[in-house]
Amino acid sequence: MRLRTVDAFAARPYTGNPAAVVLMDEDGLPDDSRLQAVAAELNLSETAYAHPVPGDPEADWALRWFTPTTEVDMCGHATLATAHVLAEDGLLGEGERVRFRTRSGVLSATREPDGTLTLDFPTARPAPVPVPDGVPQALGADAVAAWDTGTLGMLVLELADEQTLRELTPESAAVAALPTPVVVVTAAAAPSSHAAPGEPGHDFVSRVFAPSQGLPEDPVTGSAHTALAPLWSRRLGRETLTGLQASRRTGYVRTTLRGDRTLLNGQAITVLDAKLRTRL
C-alpha cells in the first residue's frame, strides 16, 4: 500500500502541516479500526484516505480524515495534500477541479496555473460570545474577544497583538477543559512584520490548539481559516488576505471570502513516498 507524506500550506519542505495520504481503489476503505490504527502509527496531525466514487454524480472521490486518536469532520491541510497527490499522479491537471465527498459535504480543490491549489470550503460565520472562564489560565494570556464558529466546532480567541500570540505557552490540560475541543487564537499582523525571503507577507496570525483530539498544537489548520477569513476580511475591508499560522513549523494560507464559501490557497510538497508493509 503506497503512502505519501505531504507538507501542506508549505513554501518549502519541513514547514507547513504534514499529512499522510493513502489513495485506495474504488472498492472503498477497510474498517474504521484499521484506518485509525494506521493514523495512530503515523502520528501526524491527520491521515487522509481517499477512493474514487465513479457512481456519484456530485463527487469524484470519497475522502476521510483521521487524527492519531479520532476521525474529524473537516480538515483543510489534508484535503490540500490529497489534491497535491492526485496532481502528482496525473489525475488532476492544470486548471482542473476535483470534488471530494466528505462528512462535511462535497468539497473541491482546483489546481492553479502557478502550481498552487485552491480549496473551496463553506464559510464559518463567527458569532461573538463571552470569553470563557479559564482562558487566561489555559493560555497564559488574556483574550480581548471570543467567537463561536457553530458547526465548525472551534472557539476563536483574539489576543492583544502578534507578539503575545507568538509567545504563548498554553497548558494543554487547561485548554482541553475549555468548552470546545479546538481553540484558535488570532491577532492582527504586527505593523513591523516583514516576510522572510521567498515568503509572502501576512495580514493576520493564528495558532491552533486541540489537545483533546491528540493535537497539542496543530501546525497549520486550513479549516480554521474558514472562520478567520470572514473575521479579518470584515475588519480589514478586503476579500483576499494572507494568514500566517505561527506554529513552530509555520505556514501560509491565502484566503478569499466569497459569501458562504471561502477559498483557501496554498502550496504543498511531497517529502516521503513509502510502502505500507502490513495490510491496511
TrEMBL record:
InterPro entries: Phenazine_PhzF-like (IPR003719). Signal peptide: none annotated. The keyword Isomerase applies. The keyword Nucleotidyltransferase does not apply. Coiled coil: none annotated. Keywords: Isomerase. NCBIfam families: PhzF_family. Belongs to the PhzF family. This is PhzF family phenazine biosynthesis protein. It comes from Streptomyces smyrnaeus.
